[in-house]
Please model this.
Amino acid sequence: EIVMTQSPATLSVSPGERATLSCRASQGVRTNLAWYQQKPGQPPRLLIYGASSRATGIPPRFSGSGSGTEFTLTISSLQSEDFAVYYCQQYDNWPLTFGGGTKVEIK
Amino acid sequence: EVQLLDSGGGLVQPGGSLRLSCAASGFIFDTFRTYAMSWVRQAPGKGLEWVATISGSGSSTFYADSVKGRFTISRDNSKNTLYLQMNSLRAEDTAVFYCAKAWRTTLTISHFDSWGQGTLVAVSS
Model:
């Protein structure tokens, strides 16, 4: 099983600042990596797939990068609606696995 | 726009059974049958855990080790509906269960671009 490790667990950021979230895979997943945003009481929403492609309707302040085992999600200028939990997911191999999540909170 | 409506959750005793359903709508030209579908769960206050995936035709299924032999994923393409039959339920199966759609047709292993709202399964005596 590919273990996905996200860091940090919690990120405190002021509105307008940049947020950088990391995701590490225990073995290479090429670019078969997605990022999701989840707010309380809601299902996850797809942000990024293929490590760097934005999903439909996702604003350009969200960007993804990386390949192999190291991945990054960057939110260039945090808006109030961006405070949420973010998960990465690998879909290179079964079983599909998610990271433990990074909570982005208001500083 | 694709919409997924999960249902069937509830309170069940340990060792009991439950069947979840996910009714899908908004697929163009009867294409539901071309998309793999999955169940993903989230225990209270915890992260996301993939549970099972079924191919578009239903001929291939994949399960997490934690549910293999106890849960069965299936689909009825004539009704645009996905199911999860859960047997021998345990306290640790308590979670919100989401159905989720694969991003593209013909892909079985995939990320998910549409999610249901979730249905809560609580296993307790």
Observations:
- Chain B touches chain A at residues 38, 47-50, 53, 62, 64-65, 98, 103, 109-113, 115-118 (CB under 8 Å).
- The mean pLDDT of chain B is 96.
- The CA atoms of residues 33 and 99 of chain B lie 15 Å apart.
